[in-house]
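ok so I'm stuck.
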Amino acid sequence: MLPSWLPVDGYVLALLATVALAALLPVSGTAATVAGGASSAAVAFLFFLYGARLSTREALDGLRHWRLHLTVLGCTFLLFPLLGLAARGLVPAVLTPPLYTGFLFLCLVPSTIQSSIAFTSIARGNVPAAICAGSFSSLAGIVLTPLLAAALLGGSTGGLSAGSLLTIVLQLLAPFVAGQLLRRWIGGFVLRHKKVLGLVDRGSILLVVHTAFSQGMVAGVWRLVTPARVGLLLAAEAVLLAVMLTLTWYGAKRLGFGRADRIAVQFAGSKKSLAAGLPMATVLFGTQASLAVLPLMLYHQMQLIVCAVVARRRSRDPEVPDREDP
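replied:
not stuck anymore, here's the structure
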């Protein structure tokens, strides 16, 4: 058995198996058209579920921690993109242009909810704040991630044309809003069948990944990636994660947050959501989505391993009086 502080996400293993399946048996022709339609429907359903799950009341109750939430949003949608832009200097020596596009996209997606909460709890941090911070980040990401991608990635996403805006609205925003509007009637059903819907949720993402990587295989984009390049990408992502963990911890201290809030800021502000990023990439990048999501998939597993170690160390910190925010 693996040690508890070294999690290997079973879902990431399933994603890797899906990638391998797409490499061996990519869909093409009519099958690719059908898979593409099913993938688009899966993305819309995912964001419908996100809307149905997000408790508007909990989000509003969390507004009293507005300084913490603004700090996490600033880390997610300002510091991360700035570091991503700075990484442009790694092209072409470390990152190829396609891998850099994926690296920058990684810096634009929202934070996670579940793992941020789990690690904040392990480290004895402010769990309610982590819940709200992750929820706010996910909500903001539905709008900010496509806008930032269009502004910073330019031609890589096809630009922010009327067609791409319509696609974003129909596949991301409209289903999310519908889920929020219907939550009053279906919220109980969603909660009661959380486990089953979770499997549907993850299965939908596996479908999205298989379709995206099949398109990449048919287009021959994977000939551009060598094992050495993947190793360099991992090194760049390790530096990115280390910088963000340091900035969120000491930056939160400088802003006057107490220990429990600093923990919430560190774990919510240094993470990136695989569940939100994968379907967004298929909408924004189309046939180029497979290379665009590779950095995000690798970063996801890396953040789980590193943050598990950090959370365990924080849990052993001596008890100290926690200062209230001014």
